[in-house]
Amino acid sequence: MFSSPWAAVVAVIVVAAGWGLLLSPKAPARPPWPWHAVAAHVLFVLGAVVLFAVGQPLIAAVYLALILVSVALTVVYRDRMGPATERIRESAAPSGRRAAGR
After folding, report:
1. Which of 15, 34, 60, 102 is deepest in the core (most CB within 10 A)?
2. Annotated domain spans of the chain
């Protein structure tokens, strides 16, 4: 799949930077609810494609099955998790001595 090891290194750096900017818990440009889940699962599927491309079809198939379970759970529990994560995000304001600047 990759013509040189440097292509793989660049691909890992690009994916890590994209995850850090868009999908990480404290991402500065985190997309809203449905798009965040879609982007995360697309990233997982790309990982399965890479596993298949490097000659690991069994591991790729198991990983794809786990991704499908994740998608199903995300769809089933999306209404329950939305308000809960908003409450967590609102209550995550810093408090204590460090927040007071001491």
Report:
1. 60
2. 5-92
